[in-house]
Amino acid sequence: MFKNKFQQKSLVQRFLFVFGLCFFLLYLGLGCMFLFWDSMPIALEYTHRMLFGGLLIVYGIFRFIRLWNQD
Question: Does the keyword Membrane apply (predicted)?
């Protein structure tokens, strides 16, 4: 199913799909950075860092689901 769906896309649609995947990975990585990096150069309280990191991860997953379901 994935192979047929990917082959039917034009070059621009493939580029935008890969671009969307890169941004998903960016949001996921940034969220993990906020969650797990203890000596972060940004001065945020622990709870704010956890909330912001979790929000970035959830938003990245939301973007990935929208990208995957897109025709």
Answer: yes
Exposed / middle / buried, residue 34 (Cβ in 10 Å: 0-12, 13-18, 19+): buried
Cα–Cα distance for residue pair 3/6, rounded to 1 Å: 5
CA angle 56, 68, 53 (to 5 degrees): 10
| Ramachandran category for residue 10: left, alpha or beta (phi over 0 → left; psi -120 to 50 → alpha) | beta
Tokens, residue 43? 């001065």
Contact of 30 with 54, CB cutoff 8 Å: no
Per-residue pLDDT 10s for the chain (71 aa) are: 455 555 677 888 889 899 999 999 999 999 999 998 888 788 888 898 999 999 999 999 999 999 888 85
Per-domain residue ranges for the chain?
24-71
